[in-house]
Amino acid sequence: MSERSILVTGGTGALGRAVTRAFLGNGDRVTVPWIVAAEARELETEFRAEHAANRLVLVEADVADEAGAALACQTAASPDVLVNGVGGFGGGAPVEDTPLELWDSLFRINVRTAVATARAVLPGMRERRRGVIIGVASQAALQPPGGIAAYSAAKAGIVALTRSLQEEVAGTDIRVGAVVPATIDTPANRAGMPDADFSTWTPPGRIADVIQWLASDAAATVRGALIPV
Q: What's the rounded Cα separation, in Å, for the pair 120 and 13?
């Protein structure tokens, strides 16, 4: 397989690192936008040690903004695959006690980033009539518990975006899908929920494996899929 261009947003996070590692391990060129310099340096150091840094491209860009999303897309040189891995969690209160500012923040980080980057990559994908866009939703979007309505609604936005985009690119070889994780086994989640049963959580590497499969030719007939992991 020839080297592909992969754009991974949120690539400096726990899930994003696993996704980045999976694609680099496949021989792909991976572009990761960043906004925190220390995280970018740490990522570069990590993959330099694994002798994959020559195919890792880091670019300072806030992909929630149109200009940042466009810069990330340009740096990735019209990516073959977009993985919208930027995400954030918040909540823990009933709707009437959840500030509107938190709703704005969660929609910006979870939904606006996915929309902005999709808008940036779609013209090139439409021109080539092929490409893959993969989102990261949450099982909270499909079965929302109480107390985290803002987060559940934001992730439900990824579900709707996935389905709508797939309808809009019908007739091309552009494929859109999303993984739908339960709780991801990350250091931040363990610190936030120290009494939970970690054995029931999904390791980031398992999710990355599913994302890599969705991006592969093996999933060429899988369109609009929402895959629980």
A: 22
